[in-house]
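Human: We require from you a protein record containing the residue sequence and its fold in C-alpha cell form, and nothing else.

Assistant:
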Amino acid sequence: MEEKINPTELELNEFIQIINEISGIDLNEKRNILALKLSKFVSGTQAKSFAEFLSKLKINRQLKQDTLDFVTIGETYFLRELAQLREIIFYVKSLEKHVNILSAPCSSGEEVYSMAILAAQNFIKDLSITGIDINSNVIEKAKMGQYQGRTLHRLSESEKRRFFTNDNQEIFTINKHELCRCNFELCNVFEDKFLRLNKFDIIVSRNMIIYFDYDSKIKLMERFHRILSDRGRLYIGNADLVPENVFFKKVFSSHGTYYEKI
C-alpha cells in the first residue's frame, strides 16, 4: 500500500504558484480539495516527499505535462452554449472568404467538431479550425475523434448518422470527410509556440479565463491580440469575465456579445 504524501501549507502554496506561473491557472479557490487529490497523484510519481516532487516539477518536462494533465481535467459536450456557436458560424458565413478559427482550450475536441458540424450544415467549406489545449490526454482524444455517453446527448440522430460512424454500438467516431479542416495541437497559451500558430480571424476561448487571476487574464488578452487578424473577434464563455484592457472592446450585437480587436 502506497504511503500518502501530504503537502504542508507552504508546499501547497508553492505548488499553486508553480502551476500559476506555467499556465495562468489560479487554484487557490480549490486548495482544500486539491490537497486531498494531490496526495494520491504525488505518490504515483515515485517522489519520496512533497518537497522532492516540487523540485522535480520545476525541471522535469514530462512531470510538468503529467501535472498539467492532472489539474486540467474538465467536462465538455457537443453543441455546448449552442446559441453562441451558431452566431460564430453566422459571422463566418458573412465574411465570404477563407476563415481561420482558434479554439483555446479545445478540451477533447467537442467544441471544434461542433463548429465544423454547424459549418457543414450551413454549406461552409472554406474554413479551418485549430484546437489547442495544455492537457495531452484530451488532445490525443480530440485527434482520435471517438466519443460516447453524455458528450453526445445534444446531437440529433440524423446528426449522428451524418457526422459519425458507429461500428461499435457505444463509440461514435467523427466522420472527418464531412467536415472542414480540423487540427489539434498540444500548446500552452503562455509559451512561444502559441504565437507561432497562425493568424486567426476568430478566437473562441470558453471556460478557461474564469480560472485565471487578473494578471494572467491581461497577459492572455495581449497574446490573443497578437495572433488575431485586424478587427478579429474573441468569443468567451458565459461564465468568463474579461477585465477592461487596451487590446479589445466589448461589442453588443443583436446576435450576441463578443470582443473586437482594437
The two ends are 57 Å apart (CA to CA).
